[in-house]
C-alpha cells in the first residue's frame, strides 16, 4: 500500500546547506509548516546522529502553524574532495483528536499512516572573493556614520567627565564632614578637661578652706554651748532635789 503524501511543507524542501568554516558549530534552519486543520506529530531523523544536534527533534505542530528546527553540525576537519553522504528525514503523522500520549501514537501508527520527506546535506566553504568582500564591508564606514559616531561620543565623554566631577565633589564633602566631626570631638574633650580642672581648683582654693574652718569653729562652739546648757540643767536638778 502506498504511503500517505507528506502534509507538512518543508523549507528548504530537498537540501540542508551548511556554510563553513567548520572549526565551530554551524547551524542550518529547517522550517516546518502545517497547512492542515489537524495537529501533526513530527520527528526529525538523520543518518549521522553523532555529527548533528537537532532542536527540537520531535513534537506537535498545531493546525495552521509552523516551527523552526535548528540543525547544528558539530566541528570537523573539512575535506573539499569528500562528498557528504549525510541525510535527514522528516517523519510525520496526523495526531488523533483525543491524543494524550505522543509516544503511544508513534508506537501504534500503521505504516500507511506515516508520512516522510528526505533531505540531503551539503557543505560549502566561503570563496576567497566572498571573504575579501565581507572584510571590506566590515572595514568600510560611511562619512555620515563616522560623523554620527563622533557626535554621539562627545556627549558620552562629557557625561563621563561630569560623573567624575560629581564623585570628586562628594568625596571632598565627606572629607570635610569627617574633619568637622573630629574637631567637635576635640572641643568636647577640651571642655570636659576644663570643667574637671575648674572643679578641682574650687575644691582646693583658700576661700573654700577658710569657709570650712569657720564652719568647723561654729560647729565646735555650738557643741560647747549645748554641753554647758546640759551641765547647768543637771546642776539645777541636783540643787532642786537638795532644797526639797
UniProtKB/TrEMBL annotation:
Keywords recorded for this protein, A-Z: Acetylation, Coiled coil, Endoplasmic reticulum, Isopeptide bond, Membrane, Phosphoprotein, Transmembrane, Transmembrane helix, Ubl conjugation, Unfolded protein response
Compositionally biased intervals (Basic and acidic residues): 128-137
Domain MSP: 7-124
InterPro entries: Ig-like_fold, MSP_dom, PapD-like_sf, VAP
Protein name: MSP domain-containing protein
Organism domain of life: Eukaryota
Similarity comment: family membership: Belongs to the VAMP-associated protein (VAP) (TC 9.B.17) family.
Start and end residues of each stretch annotated as Disordered: 128-162
Coiled-coil intervals, chain numbering: 167-194
PANTHER family found in the cross-reference section: VESICLE-ASSOCIATED MEMBRANE PROTEIN-ASSOCIATED PROTEIN, VESICLE-ASSOCIATED MEMBRANE PROTEIN-ASSOCIATED PROTEIN B_C
Membrane-topology annotation of the record: Single-pass type IV membrane protein
Feature: compositional bias, Polar residues: 138-147
Subcellular location: Endoplasmic reticulum membrane
Purpose of the protein: Endoplasmic reticulum (ER)-anchored protein that mediates the formation of contact sites between the ER and endosomes via interaction with FFAT motif-containing proteins such as STARD3 or WDR44. Interacts with STARD3 in a FFAT motif phosphorylation dependent manner. Via interaction with WDR44 participates in neosynthesized protein export. Participates in the endoplasmic reticulum unfolded protein response (UPR) by inducing ERN1/IRE1 activity. Involved in cellular calcium homeostasis regulation.
Transmembrane intervals: 225-243
Organismal lineage: Eukaryota, Metazoa, Chordata, Craniata, Vertebrata
Amino acid at each position: 500500500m502506498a504511503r500517505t503524501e507528506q502534509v507538512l511543507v518543508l523549507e528548504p524542501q530537498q537540501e540542508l546547506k551548511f556554510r563553513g568554516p567548520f572549526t565551530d558549530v554551524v547551524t542550518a534552519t529547517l522550517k516546518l509548516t502545517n497547512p492542515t486543520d489537524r495537529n501533526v506529530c513530527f520527528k526529525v531523523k538523520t543518518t549521522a546522529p553523532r555529527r548533528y544536534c537537532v532542536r527540537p527533534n520531535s513534537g506537535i505542530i498545531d493546525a495552521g502553524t509552523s516551527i523552526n528546527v535548528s540543525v547544528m553540525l558539530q566541528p570537523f576537519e573539512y575535506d573539499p574532495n569528500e562528498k557528504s553522504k549525510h541525510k535527514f528525514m522528516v517523519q510525520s503523522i496526523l495526531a488523533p483528536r483525543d491524543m494524550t500520549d505522543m509516544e503511544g501514537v508513534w508506537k501504534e501508527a500503521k505504516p500507511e499512516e506515516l508520512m516522510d520527506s528526505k533531505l540531503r546535506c551539503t557543505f560549502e566553504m566561503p570563496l576567497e572573493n566572498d571573504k575579501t568582500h565581507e572584510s571590506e564591508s566590515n572595514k568600510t564606514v560611511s562619512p555620515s556614520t563616522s560623523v554620527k559616531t563622533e557626535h554621539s561620543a562627545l556627549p558620552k565623554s562629557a557625561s563621563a567627565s561630569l560623573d567624575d566631577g560629581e564623585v570628586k565633589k562628594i568625596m571632598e564633602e565627606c572629607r570635610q564632614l569627617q574633619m568637622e566631626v573630629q574637631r567637635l570631638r576635640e572641643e568636647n574633650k577640651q571642655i570636659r578637661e576644663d570643667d574637671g580642672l575648674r572643679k578641682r581648683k574650687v575644691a582646693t582654693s583658700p576661700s573654700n578652706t577658710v569657709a570650712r574652718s569657720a564652719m568647723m569653729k561654729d560647729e565646735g562652739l555650738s557643741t560647747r554651748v549645748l554641753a554647758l546648757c546640759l551641765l547647768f540643767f543637771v546642776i539645777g536638778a541636783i540643787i532642786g532635789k537638795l532644797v526639797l
